[in-house]
Design brief:
Layout: E1 27-30, H1 47-57, H2 67-73, H3 79-91, E2 95-102, E3 109-116, H4 123-138, H5 171-176, H6 190-201, H7 209-224, H8 229-237, H9 247-257, E4 281-283, E5 290-291, H10 302-311, H11 318-335
Parallel strand pairs: 1-3
Antiparallel strand pairs: 2-3, 2-4, 4-5
Helix pairs in contact: 1-3, 2-3, 6-7, 6-8, 7-9
């Protein structure tokens, strides 16, 4: 049970106009339904947590929420103190760190966000809210073409535009006509680019332009079998010897020996198949371990939650304090010059 701290809280530092913002889709996001901001916000929290919470509450949407960046803006506390304060704010119901996947296919990436609520929420509220966020993200609005309500209301068809009569050129005009511009040359193929980038990432696999052209047909066979360029480059770079005398010979051997098998064509997905649901994963505010919201009460995983509840509010016994003092006195005695 939280106890009220009557000591005056430290003044909240002003948010710098140049405070860094996170990339789109990252950073702070405010939860809905919060109470209006008052002077008594976070009154039940200790002084340090009130200080950090007041600063985070005044940050704009999408602001950078990493411990390192927050510690730069809070002159009184370092990264360890800020990390401990964020954990306490998570237990108090003010924030949750989450991760979710965005994109499709090979473009899928993880997005990290920090949901913030000035009003403290319990675990049930957070679980319900994150479930609602999941449903909102997975609901894809279907664009339906607009059609007229009835044939009578349909717009009248416009008469076709008159076909222009081509201008007849004389033989002299045809001879003086400018030649058509040449067609633009096609760029290098994905297979060629994948081979060319090998040397940029690892000098042992540096290839010349002629080498890339020679190996391009072999690499194209890999891509024709459905693998990505990342799969191709990782397979060619895996387990390289310390010194490579002939990069083109080594890569030719690997492109032939490690050619992936043909996979049967998969049946097309029916149009009415529902989109797979991608749930939001909550990150443990202490160690960063991901999990379902129900498995991380107070925003902490089981080990961190157990550590917080068993050692967070315990005070050493007098016998333990006396033992420590006696040990320190003995060390000082041993360090005295004889």
């Amino acid at each position: 049970m939280a106890t009220q701290h009557l000591s005056s809280a430290l003044p909240v530092p002003a948010v710098s106009p140049a405070y860094p913002m996170a990339k789109p889709g990252y950073g702070k996001r405010s939860a809905p339904g919060q109470q209006p901001r008052t002077r008594d916000d976070f009154a039940l929290l200790p002084t340090r947590e009130r200080y950090v919470a007041g600063f985070v509450d005044h940050l704009p949407e999408g602001a950078e929420m990493s411990v390192k960046q927050l510690a730069k803006q809070l002159p009184l506390y370092g990264q360890q103190a800020v990390s401990t304060s964020l954990k306490a704010l998570s237990v108090a119901g003010h924030l949750r760190r989450i991760r979710c996947s965005v994109g499709t296919g090979d473009e899928t990436r993880w997005v990290f966000r920090t949901f913030w609520s000035r009003t403290a929420r319990d675990n049930e509220w957070w679980n319900t809210y994150l479930a609602t966020e999941t449903a909102a993200r997975t609901a894809a609005p279907a664009a339906t073409p607009e059609a007229p309500a009835s044939p009578d209301l349909a717009a009248p068809a416009k008469p076709p535009a008159p076909t222009p009569v081509p201008h007849q050129r004389t033989p002299h005009q045809v001879l003086d006509a400018e030649p058509a511009p040449p067609a633009p040359e096609a760029g290098p193929s994905p297979a060629y680019l994948a081979l060319a980038h090998l040397g940029r990432n690892d000098h042992r696999l540096a290839l010349s332009a002629d080498d890339c052209t020679t190996l391009e047909p072999l690499a194209t066979q890999w891509l024709d079998r459905g693998v990505t360029t990342d799969y191709l480059t990782n397979a060619l770079k895996a387990g390289l010897p310390t010194q490579v005398d002939s990069p083109v010979g080594l890569l030719r051997r690997r492109l032939i020996d490690k050619l992936p098998p043909h996979l049967p064509a998969t049946a097309s997905t029916p149009p009415d198949t529902p989109t797979p649901t991608r749930r939001l994963l909550v990150e443990c505010t202490d160690c960063g371990r991901p999990g379902q919201p129900e498995a991380l009460p107070d925003g902490l995983c089981r080990p961190c939650h157990q550590t917080h509840t068993t050692t967070g509010d315990t005070t050493p016994e007098p016998t333990q304090i006396a033992a420590v003092k006696a040990h320190m006195a003995n060390l000082r005695t041993l360090l005295k010059p004889v």
